[in-house]
Amino acid sequence: MSVYDNSEQAVFVLLGEAGRELTGKPASELVRSYFEANGNEGVNLEAPVPEALISTIGQKHKFCVKVIEHNFSGKTRSLTVTKILPLDTSPATVSSEDNQTTATSKETSENRVDSADGSKRTCDSSELERAKRPKCGN
């Protein structure tokens, strides 16, 4: 999903419950309906956007995102959304070691993770406790 504000664009990847919470439908249903509508035309075909995604245009959402080292050093500009939060949720930064600190968005962007397998999540700590933990391989 491409997200725009008045100055920047970002790409968010919504997986599992976060995607279902935003669209009201599981990703498998969106993919199935895409192929039913477009047959064997292939992925290079320009296809209409599913209604479940069109209905999100113009809405405001607050996301809990997973940020890994690749987000700072890689060429991709996408973030993985792990949860959709209520708009009135206060910002907090929680590392994979569960050290919790409140931070502004500027402080969060300056506070990079040095380990290649380390990650940071930006969301409310009470919401994080209810969310699934990411699996980190060694």
Automatic annotation (TrEMBL):
SUPFAM superfamilies: Nucleic acid-binding proteins (SSF50249). Residues 107-131 have a biased composition (Basic and acidic residues). Residues 88-138 are annotated as: Disordered. Transmembrane segments: none annotated. It comes from the Eukaryota. InterPro entries: NA-bd_OB-fold. Residues 90-106 have a biased composition (Polar residues). This is (rape) hypothetical protein. The lineage of its organism: Eukaryota, Viridiplantae, Streptophyta, Embryophyta, Tracheophyta.
